[in-house]
Amino acid sequence: MRNHHHHSVSSFYQTGRWIDLNILLSVIIILIIISPGRVDGLDHSNNWAVLICTSRFWFNYRHVANTLGMYRSVKRLGIPDSNIILMLADDMACNPRNMFPGTVYSNADRKLDLYGDQIEVDYRGDEVSVENFIRLLTGRVAEGTPRSKRLMTDERSNVLVYMTGHGGEEFLKFQDSEEISAFDLADAFQTMWAKNRYNQLLFMIDTCQANTMLTKFYSPNIIATGSSAKGENSYSHHADSDIGVAVVDRFSHFVLSYLENMNKTSQLTMQDFVNSYSYEECHSTPEARTDLMERPLREILMTDFFGGVSTVEVSDSTLRLKIEEEEKKMDPQFSKWTGRVDWIGSTDRSDGEGQRRGTKDEKVVKKLMGGFGGEEHQRLVAGCLLILFVFASQLFASRL
């Protein structure tokens, strides 16, 4: 009896070892192909912009103009309105003091209306608050919030966050009634990173002592730049005698002028941009913090944040088709286990037995999932891992 059992085991290894090894290697290859992990800075599929003016009242006209100028620039360079969150604390276009109703200008000759007919303001007035801003960044908006008020980013998104208003050392005022601190921003960005809500992030701020808002960041893949050093003010560029107030800030005017010389195919890099900073132009000391970014600025295009992205995506259905083709090439014994895998990748399975077994198996698989991104990818990876468990168990049992 013992000899017969030994003969069966030997026969199994002689006839099946190569087939089982081939199956295991095939599954491992598929697993590697479909596992995205954390995407590096060279592979992003979409750009988003969050543009926020935190000031209200007519004398802060320039802060609204700063933000609308940035809005116009990123749209011109290819970021669609669906990927722009525009937050304006006040409506200068419809202010009764405005001699040119329905318009906002930042240029001296008033040839370019920044407001126009195609503007889409997502948060306005009292909606522009510290709470709503942090909820937007971290994805913790209230249930029922429309898509236009959501930041629908993922681990392949490059995100531009631009802020302008009144501030001081390590704080920025909202609506002249509350403040966001450098610590608040740092923690919000860390939450975004932990939740796979950005690939790379560019933070820009135009306010007094702006560079102090950059000091607390600690999350990877962030470039941060501000308009003024600690103890410095950020100044307006020029006033309009008919409008009666300053219409743009110096740092924002500098940035917008730089962007105006770019097109969608521009090869200007972030290093080129930072090298062009000028105290004479801004009357303050703009700085950039780059220690959190793995890639050097000379390898990062300006359009990686300010422009649109045109890519071809391979859908999950295509990946599933490739997996099915690989399955057909494998040993027939492989098919008897696919029933346990199919329902893990499906949300429609409703029979009790499948749910009971699936819950137990998924708990084991999820512990090994680590940082895999995307729900659909997670299901595919879970299925492949379970296949590995099954065949490993089969090989182990055959030795007994």
UniProtKB/TrEMBL annotation:
GO terms for biological process: attachment of GPI anchor to protein; GPI anchor biosynthetic process; proteolysis. Gene3D superfamilies: 3.40.50.1460. GO terms for cellular component: GPI-anchor transamidase complex. It comes from the Eukaryota. Keywords: GPI-anchor biosynthesis, Membrane, Signal, Transmembrane, Transmembrane helix. Pfam families: Peptidase_C13. Pathway: Glycolipid biosynthesis; glycosylphosphatidylinositol-anchor biosynthesis. The chain crosses the membrane at residues 21-39. The active site is at H166, C208. One of its GO terms (molecular function) is GPI-anchor transamidase activity. Belongs to the peptidase C13 family. This is GPI-anchor transamidase.
